[in-house]
Amino acid sequence: MTRHGKNCTAGAVYTYHEKRKDTAASGYGTQSVRLGKDAIKDFDCCCLSLQPCRDPVITEDGYIYEKEAILQYILHQKTEIAKKMKAYEKQKQALKSEGQLESKSEERQRAEKFKQRENNIVSKPINPFTSGKSKGDGIPKSSPSSSTSDASAGESSSSSALPSFWIPSLTPEAKPTLLKKPSKAVLCPMSGRPLKMSDLISVRFTPLDPGLDRVALLTRQDRYVCAVTKDTLGNSVPCAVLRPSGAVVTMESVEKLIRKDMIDPITGDKLKDKDIIPFQRGGTGFAGSGVDLKAKEARPVMQA
Q: Looking at residue 126, what is its pLDDT?
């Protein structure tokens, strides 16, 4: 197609390509880009440092970590939990002391009200033979004028008690947010489930060429193979870790060989279903990999 055809603006149809081009140039509208293979970590890289693991460990959910990185993460989370728990205990003690002060003030108010009621009791005996006085003479009667004056006084007192936001002493203050009791469980950064140091399982990769050193091994694209079938491992090959030996094998060998006898081919130990941990792989760049490979950037949207 000619250059004039690519930049044609006389058409009656606003094409999808022109819409995406204008959206990218305008700065409005959500943009989505499909990630390539270079934007996805390899299957043997740590989920925290994104670097090839020297001493890899894996969780029960199948996420691989560098042992040093995940231990630092657990230590950091425990320190943060201890700080939050200390702040929560401090808030709890403060609320407890405030409650004790309020209870003491309420008891003091009850005692004062009781004294006032006791002082209002008539201590002198009333002479029943006195004339011109009734039982209700001691009680002052309210008049309409007095009631109106009381109402006006109440209104004036309520109006004078209204807060003025421009006076510093009457400025409303925001109460501090109450802290919730923090959970003591350390969560996995990938799965979000509770994680303990005892749940970490050591992983042993079988190198493709045992004679190569680490630097030469990392420069190759195909670094490790299955411990049973010697097939090359990668993001496109489903694999699993055997708990007793920590060996990495392909899922094909698990289904065809290991599940028949349920015996670890490296150590000879008896296996259970929970001892076979599927590996959480990265994406492959293909649509059928089962991994969401779209990156979205939310930007303001102009609506008419």
A: 60
Closest CA to 205 of 249, 252, 256: 249
Give the span between the Cα atoms of 185 and 202, in whole angstroms: 22
Question: pLDDT of 46-94, one tens digit each?
Answer: 888 888 888 999 999 999 999 999 999 999 999 999 999 999 999 888 8
* Sign of CA pseudo-dihedral 65, 68, 69, 73: positive
Category of 171 on φ-ψ map: left (φ > 0), alpha (ψ -120 to 50) or beta: beta
For residue 210, what are its two tokens?
Answer: 């045992």
Q: Whose CA is closest to 52, among 63, 43, 40, 62?
A: 43
As a three-state string, the secondary structure of the chain is CCHHHHCCCCCCCCCHHHHHHHHHHHCCCCEEEECCHHHCCCCCECCCCCCECCCEEECCCCCEEEHHHHHHHHHHHHHHHHHHHHHHHHHHHHHHHHHHHHHHHHHHHHHHHHHHHHHCCCCCCCCCCCCCCCCCCCCCCCCHHHHHHHHHHHHHHHHHCCCCCCCHHHCCCCCCCCCCCCCCCCECCCCCCECCHHHCEECECEECCCCCCHHHHHCCCCCEECCCCCCECCCCCCEEEECCCCEEEEHHHHHHHHHHHCECCCCCCECCHHHEEECCCCCCCCHHHCCCCEEEECCCCCCC
* pLDDT of 297: 78
Q: Which residues of the chain have pLDDT under 50?
A: 1-2, 4, 134-136, 138-142, 147, 285, 287-289
Residue 55 pLDDT: 92
pLDDT at 7: 58
pLDDT on residue 1: 46
Please list, in sequence order, all residues whose beta carbon lies within 8 angstroms of the beta carbon of residue 236, skipping any fewer than 6 positions away: 284, 286, 289
